[in-house]
């Protein structure tokens, strides 16, 4: 799933290529992706793009008072083309969900792999009209998100486990499964540790890890084309997706906890005092 660093990099990429360009046509091929009907997609035709912003994991293209806002979900991606095919995109069984055609012949496709269809597209006058945008927590790289802000977030989360708190978009916007694993590994904290139980030193370490991991991922992606961002994300991960491999820090074997529709990875030596977490419902390990 694209998370905040990749979405931020896509926003920069689109800002450089789309602002000042006119939308010729938006072609919908996966009707389940469109979550709004008024204004219609056709209302964007002929409008000049005047900005590209990010809200958590949502991308927002503004065009003369309207906003094309989309969330790539778990299996979605944006594919830029300097020259789109001249023939209109047609509905079918392939991965293409939406095509945005610009006045210089360029544009981009939104695609979604797999059978689940969770990619979401909205056309709105205000992004805050989208419920999931309106309820987003603070942006962890925003200037207002200081250590006191993180302290307040964790205090408000009570005994909730750190992993879940970092992933909750209503608490902190933009962090997903991969970067929450990376942040907790860098901070040397158990994913199951209660949010409100951190010592002042642990909180400071978590804050620095959060800023460093997200900021570093964005820095590594600077200047990359959209097609290269996935590979850059994977190459920069130290624990997520690396179960069974040695930890780069201590050499211990990276372990995994599986859930119904996801999993987390961690280093027992770095994060849990050498102990393995068997299951989030069964483990009593909190430190």
From TrEMBL:
Record's catalysed reaction(s): Hydrolysis of DNA containing ring-opened 7-methylguanine residues, releasing 2,6-diamino-4-hydroxy-5-(N-methyl)formamidopyrimidine
Keyword set includes Hydrolase: yes
Family listed: Belongs to the FPG family.
Names of required cofactors: Zn(2+)
Species for this entry: Microlunatus capsulatus
Pfam family, one: Fapy_DNA_glyco
SMART domains assigned to the protein according to its UniProt record, in alphabetical order: Fapy_DNA_glyco, H2TH
Enzyme Commission code: 3.2.2.23, 4.2.99.18
Key words of the record: DNA damage, DNA repair, DNA-binding, Glycosidase, Hydrolase, Lyase, Metal-binding, Multifunctional enzyme, Zinc, Zinc-finger
Protein name: Formamidopyrimidine-DNA glycosylase
GO molecular function: class I DNA-(apurinic or apyrimidinic site) endonuclease activity; oxidized purine nucleobase lesion DNA N-glycosylase activity
Domain FPG-type: 238-272
InterPro entries, A to Z: FPG_cat, FPG_N, H2TH_FPG, Ribosomal_uS13-like_H2TH, Znf_DNA_glyclase/AP_lyase, Znf_FPG/IleRS
Sequence ranges assigned to domain Formamidopyrimidine-DNA glycosylase catalytic in this UniProt record: 2-142
